[in-house]
Design goal:
Blueprint lengths: L4 E5 L5 H10 L5 E5 L11 H17 L5 E4 L2 H14 L4 E3 L1 H11 L4 E6 L1 H6 L1 H9 L4 E6 L3 H6 L6 H10 L1 H5 L4 E4 L8 H8 L4 E4 H15 L12 E5 L3 H12 L7 E2 L10
Parallel strand pairs: 1-2, 1-3, 2-9, 3-4, 5-6, 5-7, 7-8, 9-10
Helix pairs in contact: 1-11, 2-3, 4-6, 4-11, 8-10
């Protein structure tokens, strides 16, 4: 119960999930690994992403004693969720299923869209997740290469972002959707631009809040939530430049991210 909640992402995007979890569960300790040394995941082969996810998840469990692991990355979820759930001895919580549930409950017309990285969209993970809800909706998907790189540079608005968004979101707009799921945890940082491009008749849906609620429900059902009145400790770890991660991460997350550690995994899945 007193162990931390572990989270990982390819970089900064999963901080949206961390923010929502910290706000919803302020007593919980959180350890977040941003794999900025190997980002972006979206353009890499899913076999590579699966290996990265394996390393990060096991590190959270063995090196940081995490009581649960949140895969705060849509591409990693699409690549390796089933394997992680089969191998790790702790609850594994993803961002795809909560996002899909939020999307189908938001729409009025039944026409919905999802955007994500090339890897996520190509995997069909969201199509399967939406179908599993049983909701009678029509889904239009579009890959958005380049969005993650803008966020990782701290460039979340401006003409370049808008021009790219107008081109990549054209098929979603043409489909006449009324709800659009931001199927990458980086994308909420671009929400202002994406909302302007899609127009006032489209609701943007982020999986971050729904994932935080899923964490609360899953850990609560297992008796793993802290019950004491305290403010949790938050550790932020990066596989890349820790100072760059701290500076941009504090802008994106807030004052909780005032220090970043270097990720130095001490054990692997086969370590005793």
């Amino acid at each position: 119960m007193d162990r931390p909640i572990g989270m990982f992402d390819s970089g900064f995007g999963g901080l949206t999930v961390a923010r929502a979890t910290i706000d919803l569960l302020p007593a919980e300790d959180v350890v977040y690994i941003g794999d900025t040394g190997r980002y972006p995941y979206g353009s890499k082969p899913l076999t590579d992403v699966r290996r990265y996810a394996h390393e990060l998840a096991w590190s959270l469990v063995k090196d940081y004693d995490a009581k649960a692991v949140v895969v705060a990355c849509n591409t990693a979820t699409a690549a390796g969720l089933d394997d992680l759930r089969a191998e790790l001895p702790v609850p594994i919580i993803d961002v795809v299923a909560p996002g899909a549930r939020a999307l189908v409950t938001t729409t009025i017309t039944g026409r919905v869209g999802v955007i994500g990285t090339v890897g996520t969209i190509a995997s069909g993970a969201y199509l399967r997740a939406v179908n599993e809800t049983g909701a009678p909706v029509s889904l239009t998907s579009a890959a958005c290469p380049g969005f993650v790189e803008f966020v990782e540079r701290g460039q979340t608005t401006g003409d370049e972002v808008t021009v790219l968004a107008e081109r990549l979101l054209a098929p979603i707009r043409d489909a006449g959707v009324d709800a659009l799921l931001l199927g990458c945890t980086h994308y909420p940082f671009l929400a202002r631009t994406l909302s302007d491009v899609m127009g006032p008749g489209v609701t943007l849906v982020s999986s971050a809040d729904e994932t935080a609620f899923e964490v609360m429900h899953r850990l609560g059902a297992l008796g793993l939530l802290r019950s004491d009145d305290r403010i949790g400790r938050h550790r932020f770890v990066s596989s890349g430049d820790v100072e760059v991660f701290r500076e941009l991460g504090e802008r994106l997350l807030g004052p909780e991210l005032d220090h970043t550690e270097a990720w130095r995994p001490r054990s692997g899945p086969s370590a005793s």
